[in-house]
Write a structure and sequence with these properties.
This protein is of the alpha/beta class. The chain has 2 domains: about 5-115 and about 245-314, FAD/NAD(P)-binding domain; about 125-240, 3-Layer(bba) Sandwich (FAD/NAD(P)-binding domain), CATH 3.50.50. The protein is built from 6 helices and 17 strands. The chain has helices spanning about 15-25, 60-75, 135-140, 155-165, 185-190, 290-314; strands spanning about 5-10, 30-35, 75-80, 85, 95, 100-110, 115, 130, 145-150, 170-175, 195-200, 200-210, 210-220, 225-230, 240, 245, 275-280. The structure holds NADP nicotinamide-adenine-dinucleotide phosphate. NADP nicotinamide-adenine-dinucleotide phosphate binds near residues 150, 152 and 289.
Length: about 325
């Protein structure tokens, strides 16, 4: 069983990193698989004010860098691969990646969630040309320009506040007449002179030749369409989309039980309905998707893997 890992963790956001830390520290032969880069969604978050203890240097990347350092120090192996398929039917689980195949006694799925797109014409074509899903990554391109932020949840309003440090004006476009974001965050936005609210509006189309030049809005109450054009001197403006997230569940589809929205259903021990397969973090059906709950899930999953391996293989 030399080439068989005790635990393979798919995904290296806070849930995967925490699982790897606990698993490696328990001296289990641990592999952490990361698809593109370590960190998950939190590395595109400029401020992490609510992870206990993260007061100074509280940025997503700095928190992840410290987690990574800890994981490496406990001896977890790390590989970059995109897992396309999995076979969970046997006692030894098999993961099939673009670069290779991995075998494990237990698997933790921590693949997280990805930004939901608006789904309107022009959106995909304009990604990187004015359309963005990450204020931390792209805000400085919009220094002194106008930006629209689409969505009314915590992410939309927090990122709108961040964007005011760069943009001349930030307009939050929300499909209803009341924000979903926490009241404390809303209050900050209402107090900020650079932020305007465009209520009862959705984006119907994003247009531009090279860069975003105009956006067609639809009034959700009247159905009326209106087109906003970039200021002539600016030539362009930003469209930052924060309309929630979708689970990254392709490799697990049809293999473990999921809810209607595609989130994996687990019990409190992070066990899926397949023995030896666990899920942790944002990919799970859960009431609160935060770094702190992802890290907790990862720890629980790893400890449960240890117990499972002991009883099943020894
Ligand atoms: P969210 O809470 O699901 O909010 C998504 C927003 O986008 C909602 O306002 C929704 O409108 C709107 N929306 C969805 N689909 C849309 C569409 N097709 N067109 C236009 N608008 C659309 O997502 P989130 O803000 O990314 O937050 C996700 C989770 O992370 C939440 O649990 C949140 O509390 C948490 N979070 C917490 C913090 C923090 O504590 N500091 C920061 C960020 C995120 P409706 O309101 O009409 O549904």
């Amino acid at each position: 069983m030399n080439n068989i890992y005790d635990v393979v963790i798919i995904g290296s956001g806070p849930a995967g990193l925490s699982a790897a830390l606990y698993s490696a520290r328990a001296r289990l032969k641990t592999l952490l698989l990361e698809r593109i880069k370590v960190g998950g969604q939190i590395v595109i978050t400029h401020e992490v004010a609510n992870y206990p203890g993260s007061v100074r240097e509280a940025t997503g990347p700095s928190l992840i860098a410290r987690m990574e350092e800890q994981v490496v120090s406990f001896g977890a192996e790390r590989k970059k691969d995109n897992i396309k398929d999995a076979d969970f039917s046997g006692e030894i689980k098999v993961l099939k990646g673009e670069k290779g195949e991995y075998r494990a006694k237990a698997v933790i799925i921590a693949t997280g969630a990805a930004p939901r797109h608006i789904g309107c014409p022009g959106e995909n074509e304009m990604i990187g040309k004015g359309v963005s899903y990450c204020a931390t990554c792209d805000a400085d391109f919009f220094q002194d320009l106008e930006v629209f932020v689409i969505g009314g949840g915590d992410s939309a309003v927090e990122e709108a506040l961040y964007l005011t440090k760069f943009a001349r004006k930030v307009t939050i476009v929300h499909r209803r007449d009341e924000l979903r974001a926490a009241k404390s965050i809303q209050e900050k936005a209402f107090r900020n002179p650079k932020i305007e609210l465009k209520w009862n509006s959705v984006v119907e189309e994003i247009k531009g030749d090279g860069m975003v030049e105009s956006v067609v809005f639809k009034d959700t109450k009247t159905g009326e369409l209106s087109e906003y054009f970039a200021d002539e001197e600016d030539g362009t403006f930003g469209v930052f989309v924060f309309t929630g997230y979708l689970p990254i569940n392709d490799l697990a589809k049809g293999k473990v039980r999921m809810n209607e929205a595609g989130y994996i259903i687990t019990n409190d021990s992070m066990e899926t309905d397949v023995p030896g397969v666990y899920a942790a973090g944002d990919i799970r059906e859960k009431p609160l998707r935060q770094v702190v709950t992802a890290a907790a899930d990862g720890a629980i999953a790893a400890v449960q893997c240890e117990k499972y391996i002991e009883t099943t293989f020894d």
